[in-house]
Write a structure and sequence with these properties.
single chain, globular, 3 strands, alpha+beta, 2 helices, three-stranded antiparallel β-sheet, 70 residues
């Protein structure tokens, strides 16, 4: 996924994004997909229509619907 790396010391996924040449830490996550969604949310706010995402809006909606159904 874009914007993620494995933080060995913490034993979690680290989400970060680069804005104007500066790297911004978004947090540590136990689930890789949660870290990817955090990146997507910030990318959408910062880069708008030019953002590159890990998940399309449609994928996120289908996943949320699936979670609610079961």
């Amino acid at each position: 996924f874009k914007g993620l790396c494995w933080a060995r010391r913490e034993g979690k996924w680290c989400a970060r994004i680069k804005i104007d040449g500066l790297r911004h830490h978004l947090g540590y996550f136990t689930v890789e997909q949660d870290a990817a969604r955090a990146y997507d949310q910030v990318a959408r706010k910062v880069f708008g229509e030019f953002a590159l995402f890990n998940f399309s809006d449609r994928q996120i909606d289908l996943e949320n619907i699936y979670k609610l159904a079961f």
